[in-house]
Design brief:
heterodimer, A: mainly alpha, 3 helices, about 0% strand, elongated, B: mainly alpha, Non-ribosomal Peptide Synthetase Peptidyl Carrier Protein, Chain A, 2 domains, two-stranded antiparallel sheet, 5 helices
Protein backbone atom coordinates (compact mmCIF):
# COMPACT_ATOMS: atom_id res chain seq x y z
CA UNK A 1 0.00 0.00 0.00
CA UNK A 2 1.38 3.40 -0.93
CA UNK A 3 2.57 5.85 1.71
CA UNK A 4 -0.04 8.36 0.55
CA UNK A 5 -2.83 5.88 1.25
CA UNK A 6 -1.42 4.98 4.65
CA UNK A 7 -1.20 8.66 5.57
CA UNK A 8 -4.85 9.11 4.67
CA UNK A 9 -5.72 6.00 6.67
CA UNK A 10 -3.90 7.33 9.74
CA UNK A 11 -5.67 10.68 9.41
CA UNK A 12 -9.06 8.97 9.18
CA UNK A 13 -8.41 6.83 12.26
CA UNK A 14 -7.09 9.81 14.25
CA UNK A 15 -10.13 11.84 13.29
CA UNK A 16 -12.51 9.01 14.19
CA UNK A 17 -11.03 8.83 17.67
CA UNK A 18 -12.10 12.43 18.26
CA UNK A 19 -15.77 11.50 18.48
CA UNK A 20 -17.07 11.98 21.98
CA UNK A 21 -19.97 9.57 21.67
CA UNK A 22 -18.98 5.95 21.98
CA UNK A 23 -21.23 4.63 19.21
CA UNK A 24 -20.06 7.15 16.60
CA UNK A 25 -16.45 6.60 17.57
CA UNK A 26 -16.50 2.82 17.48
CA UNK A 27 -18.52 2.75 14.27
CA UNK A 28 -16.26 5.10 12.36
CA UNK A 29 -13.04 3.38 13.48
CA UNK A 30 -14.51 0.04 12.47
CA UNK A 31 -15.83 1.37 9.17
CA UNK A 32 -12.53 3.01 8.21
CA UNK A 33 -10.41 -0.03 9.01
CA UNK A 34 -12.79 -2.46 7.31
CA UNK A 35 -13.15 -0.22 4.26
CA UNK A 36 -9.41 -0.04 3.69
CA UNK A 37 -9.01 -3.79 4.20
CA UNK A 38 -11.87 -4.60 1.82
CA UNK A 39 -10.06 -2.77 -0.95
CA UNK A 40 -6.47 -3.58 -0.10
CA UNK A 41 -6.02 -5.80 -3.17
CA UNK A 42 -7.29 -3.25 -5.69
CA UNK A 43 -4.60 -2.69 -8.33
CA UNK A 44 -6.52 -0.78 -11.02
CA UNK A 45 -5.20 2.79 -10.81
CA UNK A 46 -8.48 4.34 -11.97
CA UNK A 47 -10.37 2.59 -9.23
CA UNK A 48 -7.68 3.48 -6.69
CA UNK A 49 -8.07 7.16 -7.58
CA UNK A 50 -11.79 6.91 -7.09
CA UNK A 51 -11.39 5.23 -3.70
CA UNK A 52 -8.80 7.79 -2.64
CA UNK A 53 -11.13 10.66 -3.56
CA UNK A 54 -14.04 9.17 -1.67
CA UNK A 55 -11.83 8.59 1.38
CA UNK A 56 -10.75 12.24 1.24
CA UNK A 57 -14.38 13.34 1.12
CA UNK A 58 -15.12 11.07 4.06
CA UNK A 59 -12.25 12.64 5.98
CA UNK A 60 -13.79 16.09 5.48
CA UNK A 61 -17.15 14.71 6.58
CA UNK A 62 -15.55 13.15 9.69
CA UNK A 63 -13.92 16.48 10.54
CA UNK A 64 -17.28 18.27 10.37
CA UNK A 65 -19.06 15.59 12.34
CA UNK A 66 -16.49 15.26 15.14
CA UNK A 67 -16.64 19.03 15.58
CA UNK A 68 -20.42 19.06 15.77
CA UNK A 69 -20.32 16.04 18.06
CA UNK A 70 -17.97 17.80 20.48
CA UNK A 71 -20.40 20.70 20.88
CA UNK A 72 -22.93 18.59 22.69
CA UNK A 73 -22.68 17.10 26.15
CA UNK A 74 -22.48 13.34 26.39
CA UNK A 75 -23.00 11.04 29.30
CA UNK A 76 -20.67 8.09 29.32
CA UNK A 77 -22.26 4.79 28.46
CA UNK A 78 -22.13 1.94 30.94
CA UNK A 79 -19.55 0.14 28.80
CA UNK A 80 -17.18 3.11 28.99
CA UNK A 81 -17.18 3.51 32.75
CA UNK B 1 -8.88 3.69 36.54
CA UNK B 2 -6.09 1.62 38.07
CA UNK B 3 -4.10 1.95 34.90
CA UNK B 4 -4.30 5.73 34.85
CA UNK B 5 -3.37 5.81 38.53
CA UNK B 6 -0.27 3.73 38.00
CA UNK B 7 0.60 5.95 35.05
CA UNK B 8 0.52 8.99 37.34
CA UNK B 9 2.62 7.23 39.94
CA UNK B 10 5.14 6.07 37.36
CA UNK B 11 5.52 9.36 35.56
CA UNK B 12 8.67 11.29 36.19
CA UNK B 13 6.66 14.40 36.91
CA UNK B 14 5.99 13.23 40.42
CA UNK B 15 9.39 11.76 41.01
CA UNK B 16 10.97 14.14 43.50
CA UNK B 17 14.35 15.59 42.78
CA UNK B 18 14.62 17.62 45.96
CA UNK B 19 13.12 17.24 49.38
CA UNK B 20 12.77 20.13 51.79
CA UNK B 21 10.75 20.47 54.98
CA UNK B 22 9.25 17.12 54.23
CA UNK B 23 7.64 18.43 51.03
CA UNK B 24 8.55 16.80 47.77
CA UNK B 25 8.70 18.88 44.66
CA UNK B 26 10.29 19.00 41.26
CA UNK B 27 12.50 21.90 40.30
CA UNK B 28 11.42 24.10 37.44
CA UNK B 29 13.36 23.27 34.36
CA UNK B 30 14.36 19.82 35.49
CA UNK B 31 13.86 17.13 32.89
CA UNK B 32 10.28 15.88 32.88
CA UNK B 33 10.93 13.42 30.08
CA UNK B 34 9.83 9.84 30.44
CA UNK B 35 12.35 7.19 31.36
CA UNK B 36 13.54 4.69 28.77
CA UNK B 37 12.15 1.75 30.67
CA UNK B 38 8.72 3.28 31.06
CA UNK B 39 8.49 4.07 27.35
CA UNK B 40 9.53 0.53 26.43
CA UNK B 41 7.05 -1.04 28.85
CA UNK B 42 4.16 1.09 27.69
CA UNK B 43 4.86 0.53 23.99
CA UNK B 44 5.08 -3.23 24.58
CA UNK B 45 1.79 -3.14 26.47
CA UNK B 46 0.00 -1.25 23.68
CA UNK B 47 1.35 -3.56 20.99
CA UNK B 48 0.55 -6.75 22.87
CA UNK B 49 -3.02 -5.54 23.43
CA UNK B 50 -3.63 -5.21 19.70
CA UNK B 51 -6.10 -7.90 18.55
CA UNK B 52 -3.84 -9.69 16.10
CA UNK B 53 -0.89 -9.77 18.49
CA UNK B 54 -2.72 -11.21 21.52
CA UNK B 55 -0.88 -14.27 22.84
CA UNK B 56 2.36 -13.60 20.96
CA UNK B 57 5.53 -12.65 22.76
CA UNK B 58 6.51 -9.05 22.14
CA UNK B 59 10.03 -7.79 22.77
CA UNK B 60 11.55 -4.39 21.97
CA UNK B 61 13.51 -5.86 19.06
CA UNK B 62 10.48 -7.31 17.20
CA UNK B 63 9.34 -5.81 13.93
CA UNK B 64 5.67 -5.37 13.06
CA UNK B 65 6.07 -7.84 10.23
CA UNK B 66 7.31 -10.55 12.59
CA UNK B 67 4.11 -10.12 14.59
CA UNK B 68 2.07 -10.74 11.45
CA UNK B 69 0.95 -7.13 11.09
CA UNK B 70 0.47 -5.59 7.64
CA UNK B 71 0.93 -1.89 6.92
CA UNK B 72 -2.64 -1.04 7.95
CA UNK B 73 -2.27 -2.90 11.27
CA UNK B 74 1.01 -1.11 11.90
CA UNK B 75 -0.78 2.20 11.29
CA UNK B 76 -3.42 1.20 13.84
CA UNK B 77 -0.72 0.42 16.40
CA UNK B 78 1.06 3.72 15.77
CA UNK B 79 -2.15 5.72 16.20
CA UNK B 80 -2.78 3.86 19.48
CA UNK B 81 0.75 4.77 20.61
CA UNK B 82 0.15 8.41 19.63
CA UNK B 83 -3.04 8.48 21.65
CA UNK B 84 -1.42 6.96 24.73
CA UNK B 85 1.59 9.29 24.75
CA UNK B 86 -0.42 12.34 23.71
CA UNK B 87 1.74 13.06 20.66
CA UNK B 88 1.31 13.06 16.90
CA UNK B 89 3.89 11.22 14.83
CA UNK B 90 4.53 13.19 11.63
CA UNK B 91 3.87 11.34 8.37
CA UNK B 92 7.50 11.09 7.24
CA UNK B 93 8.45 9.46 10.55
CA UNK B 94 5.41 7.20 10.65
CA UNK B 95 6.16 5.93 7.13
CA UNK B 96 9.61 4.90 8.25
CA UNK B 97 8.71 3.22 11.53
CA UNK B 98 8.44 -0.55 11.08
CA UNK B 99 9.48 -1.98 14.43
CA UNK B 100 9.01 -1.50 18.15
CA UNK B 101 12.53 -0.25 18.52
CA UNK B 102 11.95 2.56 16.00
CA UNK B 103 8.72 3.49 17.78
CA UNK B 104 10.49 3.63 21.14
CA UNK B 105 13.37 5.66 19.69
CA UNK B 106 10.95 8.18 18.23
CA UNK B 107 9.18 8.66 21.57
CA UNK B 108 12.53 9.02 23.33
CA UNK B 109 13.43 11.99 21.19
CA UNK B 110 9.99 13.57 21.57
CA UNK B 111 10.06 15.75 24.68
CA UNK B 112 6.30 16.31 24.76
CA UNK B 113 5.49 12.60 25.21
CA UNK B 114 3.63 11.96 28.43
Amino acid sequence: MSNKTLQLYRQLIRESKKFKSYNFKEYSIRRVSLGFRENKNVKNSEELDKLYKSAEENLQMLKRQTLINSMYAHNKLVVEQ
Amino acid sequence: MLRSLSKVLNSNMFRPTTSMNGYLYRNYGSDARLGDKEITDRVIEIVSNYDKVLGKTVSPSTTFKELGLDSLDAADVLVAVEEDFGIEIPDEEADRISSLKETIDFIKKTPTAK
